[in-house]
Amino acid sequence: MARRTALLAFLLGTLAIAAAYASAFLPGDPPRWSAWAMGTGTAVVMVAAMALGAARAGRIGRLKLPFAFVFVVLAGGFAAALALPPEAPGAALFLGLPLRAAIVLIGVGMLPLFVLPVAYALTFDEMTLSEADLERVRRQARALAPNAAVPAIAPETTPVPAEAEAV
Amino acid sequence: MTMAILQTGELPALAQPTIVVVAVVYFAIVAAIGAWATRKTRTASDFFVAGEGIGLLALTLAAMSATLSGFAFIGGPGLVYSVGLGAMFLILPAAVTSSMTSWALAKRMRLLGEVRGLITVPDAIGARYRSPAAQGLSGLAILIAVIGYMATNVLALGLVIDAIFGTGLAWGVWIGMAVVLAYSVAGGILAGVYTDVFQGSLMAVASVLVFVYTLRVGGGMTGISRTLMAADETFLAPFGAMGPVAALSLFFVFGVGSMGQPHVIHKFYMLRDPRKLKWYPLLVTVALLVTMLLYFGVGVAVKSLVVEGRIAPLGTPDDATPLFLLRFTPVLLAALVFSGVAAAIMSTVNSFMNIGAAAVTHDLPVALGLRVKNELFWGRIATVVISIAAAFLALLPGALVAFLGIFGWGLFASTLVPALAIGLNWEGATKEGAVASIGVGLLVTLFFETLAYFEAYRFPTGVSVSGLSLVLSILVFFAVSWLTRGRAASQLDEDVKLVMSV
To answer: B interface mutation test: which of A45, A153, A158, A160 has the most B CBs within 10 A?
Structure first.
């Protein structure tokens, strides 16, 4: 389910970006929605790519939270940059930066660092690759090719049962 | 997020004794590492994937060094100086990209590499879709992009060597190429990885030190911001002088496209213990962000110094880093950074040499149903031939080299992201979808970049060839895979399916 949702999100995010590019070919200035579509579509595609890779047995488990957080940071950061008014020269600074610059540089550019790699490490054994997973892959791979690693492109084999999911 | 784009304009002369001595010491260390690695390189696996025998720290620094070229030190700060914060959208995705690539690709590529004995990125495509055509087509795309990228990087290396030693550009190109070639041909990727460890450390240290100096000289971040906000209301606006669509498009291309950079993802094959991937995203993200401090710091500090009248406006934006270093930092630090620039370029060139040679001696023959018998020997020969071709291209007059260099990132992204990042995680993807998306990425990129080069067509503001070709190749991949979905299951070998299920 999570994998199917991630694939659909990947596709929809890409379509939003395609729409943003297509709008640039229209006569006159690009419509206001194109930047919103580009920003939101990019955030969707990046989070979808992570969810697609992280999904196991159709679930992403505890990773929902960090992925949701990063989506909010990216999409929200782009939205704030697009929507907030320009700062006056004497405006308050945040960590030495005007508000919108701080949102982009520190929010979009740094906050994910404190969440994603940590989530990856903390869930690695459970969600990514446990010792048992590794041993199972090695054992089954040896069973498939007992003497050595099989060639990069294996010879034609009997087709496996049709259970591939398709969007 | 690779930034193997480079300045092709001349640098100011840097020929000072300290800078020359540090550069000589630096080249001597690289030569020593190359000699050590040569003794350990005995097989094609050693040459192309370091015999699957490197540790986590080496992987981290090698991935970081391959990701960053001289652009991070010279072209990038110049771009910030020119267009303000919009230029940051090229590096902002770094906080996400390593984690994203780890989830989407690292584990599966590493396990597939072990199960199948893979040595190239197109190998993974060939194995995933049981398709020599997909493997060959992606190998061709890599080869085209590699030669262009190498030409621009070698030209930049020639400029740096000329600026330090006063050799003249042509000699700078040939000397630089000879140094990289010597350790790459003899020691293969093993030499590359361990010189990257040295070079990556140098780049990170130099970047942090320079950032500290930019803050000191500019009166802290607050002082720099106040100066810039008073003089130019757009410079520190979130998208700078770029439009929002153009800046966000950079984020998309350099974010999502990072999953298709073969010189980085190829390194997953090399990790000795796949369970060490656990800490890879954290280490490489921190290393990348630290190394990019210089990119931001020099760009904004030099602009603020120009606004304050403390230095004259730059003749060319690429002068930002050399000028700041020579005027505002101790000469030893300047020397370290210039060696760091050479280091960044050389580590990127080495990675390109390796994957280009693998495309010639491995991927293209596989696509034609052939097997090269002595891949180590022919890998070395291919490395020399590709390098010499790139050096000749670099020295061609006119703008051809810049043309060749600009489409590499987009070509890698559009030809590899759908087939790998989606395909290794979706059993419904098909060989037909992979071949179609690689073909579309290749054709769209080459066609529109050629039109742009000859000024026959110009995209509207905000649209880049890289972004458009990446979007089209993803959509084609989904569409063709869906249309041919009935064949998906029969194209998946049991061991590949096993790796995809973990």
So the answer is: A153
Q: Which residue has the tokens 């130019």?
A: B232
How many Å apart are CA A113 and CA B285, to the nearest integer? 7
> Which SS3 state, helix, strand or coil, does residue B181 take?
helix
Q: How far is CA B411 from CA B94, B104, B401, B405, in A?
A: 20, 20, 16, 11
ipTM of the complex: 0.91
Q: What are phi and psi of A59, to 5 degrees?
A: -135, 150
Question: What one-character DSSP code corresponds to residue A93?
Answer: E
Contact residues, chain A, for B485 at CB < 8 Å: 164, 166
User: Which of A5, A17, A69 to probe the B interface (max B CBs under 10 A)?
Assistant: A17
Tell me how close the Cα of B106 comes to any Cα of chain A, in angstroms: 9
**Cβ-based neighbour number of residue B201 at 10 Å:** 17
> SS3 for B261-322, per residue?
CHHHHHHHHHECCHHHHHHHHHHHHHHHHHHCHHHHHHHHHHHHHHHCCCCCCCCCHHHHHH
- Give me B406's structure tokens: 């600009």
**One-letter amino acid of B16:** Q
B355: Cβ–Cβ under 8 A, 6 or more apart, which residues?
A: B120, B121, B142, B146, B262, B263, B266
**Residue contact B475–A14, C-beta within 8 A:** yes
Q: Which residues pair with B271 in a beta bridge?
A: B54
Nearest CA in chain B to A142: B115
CB proximity under 8 Å: A 87-116 to B: 87, 89, 91, 93, 95-98, 100-101, 103-105, 108-113, 116
Q: Which two tokens stand for residue B158?
A: 């020639």
Asked whether B118 and B269 are in contact (CB, 8 A), the reply is yes
Give the pair of three-digit tokens for residue B213: 């100096």
Which chain B residue has the Cα nearest residue A163?
B489
Strand partners, A93: A98
Identify the bridge partners of residue A94 per DSSP, sorted by sequence position. Answer: A97
Q: At what angle do helices B132-165 and B121-129 cross, to 10 degrees?
A: 170
pLDDT of residue A159: 38
Among the listed residues B482, B181, B3, B84, the one whose alpha carbon sits nearest the alpha carbon of residue A167: B482
Nearest in space to A121 (alpha carbons), one of B281, B97, B59, B94: B281
Express each pLDDT in B97-143 by its tens digit. 999 999 999 999 999 999 998 989 999 999 999 999 999 999 999 99
pLDDT per residue over B307-346, tens digit each?
Answer: 999 999 998 888 899 899 989 999 999 888 888 788 778 8
* Residue-wise pLDDT tens digits, B143-188: 999 988 888 888 888 888 888 888 988 999 999 899 888 888 877 7
Model pTM score: 0.91
Task: Name the β-bridge partners of A97.
Answer: A94
The pair of structure tokens assigned to B100 is 């994203």
Query: Least CB-CB distance to B498: which of A21, A137, A161?
Result: A137
- The secondary element (H helix, E strand) that includes residue A98 is strand A97-98
What span, in angstroms and rounded, lies between the C-alpha atoms of B439 and B393? 25
Cβ neighbours, 10 Å, residue B110: 24
Are residues B278 and B80 in contact, defined by beta-carbon separation less than 8 angstroms?
Answer: no
A89 vs B427: CB contact, 8 Å cut-off?
no
Q: For residue B210, give both structure tokens.
A: 């320079």
Give the alpha-carbon dihedral of A119, A120, A125, A129, to 10 degrees: 160
Distance CA B216, CA B239 (A): 26
Task: For A98, list phi and psi in degrees, rounded to 5.
Answer: -60, 155
